[in-house]
Each structure stands twice: as structure tokens, then as C-alpha cells.
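Sample pair:
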Amino acid sequence: MTDPALQIKEPLDLSIIIVSFNTRDVLLDCLESVYDKTEGISYEIIVVDNASSDGTTVSVSGRFPGVRLICNGENRGFSAANNQGIGISSGRWVALLNPDTCLIENSFLKIHNYLQEHPEFSILGPGIINESGQQSPTRLWEDTPQDAAWKILGLYNPSNELQRMGDMQEALVISGCCFVIRRELFEEIGLLDENYFLYNEEDDFCRRARQHGKRICFFPETSIQHLHGKSTHQPEHRERVIVETYKSNLYFYSKHYSCAWNIILRSLYKVTFLAGLIRSAFRHLTRSASPGADDSLRLKLKLLFSQ
């Protein structure tokens, strides 16, 4: 008889990695939805906490002792924290799930079964719905320099993406709020680029995958509910989010766009920062400025004179 201790354990079907930062309540709801809705596959949940100050780690370990918890002493950013989780995970597939999401059905079983039947795909993203249950626009194509320009100028309308989505199944990129990746892909192209503290990491990863001939699937047959902005719109951390988003965008431009487009996009940023500074100064003079980072003159000056 074989000693059970010597038996080789079958790898898990799925590792679910969630990065948290001061999102205790929505994270607990997210975890509860995963445990309530996920059946028929073997899985693990790994929470990587980026030095939350709201009692996240104590609450998670108390309510969900089966969760594998990594507690960082500082906020390492989204990419680096996910890479920590990937490093200790063991699933055949890895799902990067935002803490402000909620499962409304057994989505991971549907995703797993589809990927078993379609080995040609290395990355998959499900449909996304908002708090009202309506389909959310999901970017399935690479951002072009022109898209970046419209976003800098505040003229990009994401609702137009709903029309562009149509009946697409094969995508160029997948939204990062639920991002399912075949484990072998990390071995071939590496982990997430940790130069991205926040945003652009999924577009970058998908571009690298496609450069290696990998295919990406949009799977709207199941949807995840996403409570937009619960992580990034915390007032006390809004300034850092704005700064890190700007730095992430500049890095992305330098990595994927031409030198000419880098000059154009950086110039557009400076124009918008100057306009924002003038607008905020007027609001301060008329005592109509909003509190926090969005009307901070110090922040506007910092961005205007940064590289």
C-alpha cells in the first residue's frame, strides 16, 4: 500500500489571486461570493494585502481561515503584489480578481470548462456587469496613441466600447478586473511588469503574449459584477493614484509607442496640467474648490513640472 504522504498531489484547477488595499468590506463580500458560487473545480484563494490600515488582514483571516494571506509592509502596487501571489500559487490556471468584484453565478466552473475545451486560448476575460446589472464596456483591443490622446484630453467616451464589442470572441486585450491566465504562459513570457504600479499592466501583458503567438478570449457567456473605483477613489489616497497613473502611462507610452507619439502625449499632458492648474486656482479664488486631490494646487504644480 502506498504511503499517503508519498502520493503526488494533483495540481489545483485554479488559483484566485486578489490584491487588496483598504478595501476590507468589498473584499469580504468578494470572498464570500467566491466561496458561495464556486463548485465543481478545485481552487485556492490567495489575498495579497498592500499594507492596508483598515483591518483587512485580521478580518480576512478571521472569517476565511482557508485563504492564503500575504501581508506586505508597504504598498507595492498591483503588478508586484499579483506577482507575489502567482509565485506561491499552484493552479493550472491563475485568475487575477479585483477585490471590488462579486460572483453572481458559478463563473469559474464555466470558465474552466470552456478553457478545457479550447486549449488554443492562453488568456480569458469574462463579461463585466455594473452594480445595476447592466453590461459594462470592456476594452478588447489595444489602446492606440490616438486613444491615449483623447483620454488625456478627457474626450474619450468608454460607452462607445459597448458598440465596438459586438459579438467579439477573440480579443487583443482583456480588462484586468478578472483576468484568467494559463500557468505555462508565465513560464514563457514572464510575470507582470512591476514598473506599472497601477493600470496598463494587463494591456502590456496581453501585448507580450500576442508577440509570442498566444491567443486571447473574451467569454461573455458568464459575467462578473464590478463595483468600479472602490480601490482607486479612496479620498485619502487619491493623490497617489493620480501620480502613479500618470507615471504608469508615461512608462507604457515609452515602451509601446513611437518617439514622436511620446513627445505629443507628454506635451498634451502638460497642456492639461496647466489648464487644470488655472481652473483650480480660479476655484480657490472663488472659494468653490473641491476638497482633496482633484483641486490641489500643489499636486497640479507637481505634475506640471515633473518629467
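Residues 1-8 have pLDDT under 50 and may be disordered.
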